[in-house]
């Protein structure tokens, strides 16, 4: 069961990042494809799978945010990733702010990945 949820979680992370990068490129190119219904819905489905698999893994390994420092830091990384993605994909932001969001999102997802692999808190 653990392996199933771990692979689902890793797949959802990969898809989430790929969809983010794809939408960022489309926004940068001002592509009308951004208005496609599937491109507005699919990221929400993927992110829901990401959260469900994360919660399932926490329950399976019995480690929780605000109890285990490394899980808390992964949650912080996820929240900051979402914030940075929002900055990067908001059309009304300047190109500079969107670029900061892109770099920030990739940095925070890399941080969460490092914490997940090591299972050691870095910040706390």
TrEMBL record:
Which key words tag this protein in UniProt?
Membrane, Transmembrane, Transmembrane helix
Q: Does the keyword Translocase apply?
A: no
Residue ranges of the TM segments = 12-29, 41-64, 70-89, 96-117
Q: Which InterPro entries match?
A: SirB (IPR007360)
The UniProt entry, under Pfam families, shows: SirB
- PANTHER family, per database record: PROTEIN YCHQ
Designated name of the protein: SirB2 family protein
């Amino acid at each position: 069961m653990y392996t199933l949820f771990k692979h689902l979680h890793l797949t959802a992370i990969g898809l989430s990042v790929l969809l983010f990068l794809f939408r960022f490129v489309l926004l940068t190119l001002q592509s009308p494809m951004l208005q496609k219904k599937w491109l507005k819905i699919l990221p929400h489905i993927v992110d829901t799978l990401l959260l469900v698999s994360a919660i399932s893994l926490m329950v399976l390994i019995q480690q929780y945010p605000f109890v285990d420092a490394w899980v808390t830091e992964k949650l912080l990384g996820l929240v900051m990733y979402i914030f940075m993605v929002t900055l990067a994909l908001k059309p009304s932001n300047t190109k500079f702010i969107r670029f900061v969001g892109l770099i920030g999102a990739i940095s925070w997802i890399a941080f969460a990945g490092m914490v997940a692999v090591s299972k050691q808190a870095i910040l706390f």
